[in-house]
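[[Encoded backbone]]
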Amino acid sequence: MNLRQQLTQFLTLAYVFSSAFIVWKAVSLVANSHSPIVVVLSGSMEPAFQRGDILFLWNRDARAKVGDVVVYEVKGKSIPIVHRVMREHHNDKKQLLLTKGDNNNVDDLNLYAYKQNYLNQKEDLVGTVKGYLPKLGYVTILISENQYFKFGLLGLLGLSALFSSE
């Protein structure tokens, strides 16, 4: 393979990654969320959502309602949590929410940050679930939890790049 073909492959790959990044940022702007698509990582929301479901989030609603499924992040922890709003308190300036997983026995007080009794709708919420695709996110879970699957997939991609004829 000559230099021109290698450069063409590299530019094509760069185009694919930059296009995906632009689409992600555009969806983030439309949904008003830094992470408009998340994957369910646990069984705490069964039977509503299963492990591996892909959730689509929207963060343009003025207030979350009791019964809404929301995704929130706790200060100091990087993994978003998908749970249902059980109780809400609000005034003109802010809304406070108490959440619980459908498959959990107790509310989420022990998951919140230190000395935090409620979630602040503006600060803690990533978004409200508006749609989902069942089980399609399981590949993400396999990649993050199984190192053999991750390295096998990377190996296949590398071999594919080496032996491609274009």
